[in-house]
């Protein structure tokens, strides 16, 4: 079985080395403004939150969307109720820093810089690009790095979404004071997704944290199941970028609680 994550991390080391060569950390820091924790301001525990992802390509499935640019996707998500956007900057997803900056110019919503953080340089770089939050993947970091990078992100005024894939990752995440925990539904061996993964891991989670289910959420029914199980939000890429009507799908995934409100009012 191909170790896609391992390959991505290996290439990332070279990408970070090249980025450091082109722009040393001191220069990145000089170009950076402190962030204002915009993710924490928007995301509230027990409310429903949609992080809509600008994802043109998946390493597992290839090209997902040929009809929209990252900016077009961002504009549709922002106009249709997403709480926050996730923008890939890794080339395996056809992401790049330039696209991230274009989206930053375009929308007011908090932005997650979606990348594979393996070096604290990337945290400063994320803030320089205007990110409000970074992804910290427990599987590719030691427990010490996870804590250190979380505190560094906070020191820069950014939030961090700590991503877990199994009980071991969850235990590591819970040794940190992470406010946001993302449970990824992607099996890292087969790269298939199932929201069952979130349902199985939720009992191991700390219910005081903001819990976000990531990957493989394909329709409003999936989102409703996750909401009823106790999730506070979802992160969705493929389910949105492959939808026939991306705006309508964004609305449907963002508005999961509306049905309950209507039921309560009836
Ligand atoms: O998406 C992939 O194929 C993938 C392969 C290897 C490592 C990570 C991968 N995805 C990263 C992501 O975080 C997803 O883009 C995100 O959770 C959204 O998933 P989905 O809604 O299933 O597109």
Automatic annotation (TrEMBL):
Lineage: superkingdom: Bacteria
E.C. code: 4.1.1.48
Pathway in which the depicted protein is active: Amino-acid biosynthesis; L-tryptophan biosynthesis; L-tryptophan from chorismate: step 4/5
GO terms classed as biological process: L-tryptophan biosynthetic process
Statement: the UniProt record of this protein carries the keyword Membrane: no
Stored InterPro entries: Aldolase_TIM, Indole-3-glycerol_P_synth, Indole-3-glycerol_P_synth_dom, RibuloseP-bd_barrel
Keywords of this entry: Amino-acid biosynthesis, Aromatic amino acid biosynthesis, Decarboxylase, Lyase, Tryptophan biosynthesis
Catalytic reactions of this protein: 1-(2-carboxyphenylamino)-1-deoxy-D-ribulose 5-phosphate + H(+) = (1S,2R)-1-C-(indol-3-yl)glycerol 3-phosphate + CO2 + H2O
Gene3D superfamilies found in the cross-reference section: Aldolase class I
Domain Indole-3-glycerol phosphate synthase: start-end pairs: 6-252
MF GO annotations: indole-3-glycerol-phosphate synthase activity; phosphoribosylanthranilate isomerase activity
CDD domains: IGPS
Family: Belongs to the TrpC family.
Entries under PANTHER family matching the protein: INDOLE-3-GLYCEROL-PHOSPHATE SYNTHASE, TRYPTOPHAN BIOSYNTHESIS PROTEIN
Protein name: indole-3-glycerol-phosphate synthase
Organism listed in the record: Selenomonas caprae
Lineage, highest ranks first: Bacteria, Bacillati, Bacillota, Negativicutes, Selenomonadales
């Amino acid at each position: 079985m191909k170790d896609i994550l391992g390959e991505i991390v290996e290439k990332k080391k070279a990408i970070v080395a090249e980025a450091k060569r082109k722009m040393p950390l001191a220069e990145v820091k000089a170009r950076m403004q402190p962030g204002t924790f915009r993710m924490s301001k928007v995301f509230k525990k027990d409310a429903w939150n949609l992080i809509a992802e600008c994802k043109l390509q998946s390493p597992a499935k290839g090209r997902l969307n040929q009809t929209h640019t990252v900016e077009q996707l961002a504009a549709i998500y922002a106009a249709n109720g997403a709480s926050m956007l996730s923008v890939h900057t890794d080339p395996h997803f056809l992401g790049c820093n330039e696209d991230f900056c274009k989206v930053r110019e375009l929308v007011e919503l908090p932005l997650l810089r979606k990348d594979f953080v393996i070096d604290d340089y990337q945290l400063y770089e994320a803030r320089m690009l205007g990110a409000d939050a970074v992804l910290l993947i427990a599987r590719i970091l030691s427990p010490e790095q996870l804590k250190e990078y979380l505190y560094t992100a906070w020191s820069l005024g950014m939030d961090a979404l700590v991503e877990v894939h199994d009980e071991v990752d969850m235990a590591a995440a819970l040794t940190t004071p992470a406010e946001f925990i993302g449970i990824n539904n992607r099996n890292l061996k087969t790269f298939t997704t199932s929201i069952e993964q979130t349902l199985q891991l939720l009992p191991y989670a700390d219910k005081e944290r903001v819990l976000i289910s990531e990957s493989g959420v394909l329709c409003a029914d999936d989102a409703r199941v996750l909401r009823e199980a106790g999730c506070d939000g979802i992160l969705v890429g493929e389910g949105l970028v492959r939808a026939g009507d991306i705006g309508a799908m964004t609305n449907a995934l963002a508005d999961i609680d509306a049905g309950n409100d209507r039921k309560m009012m009836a």
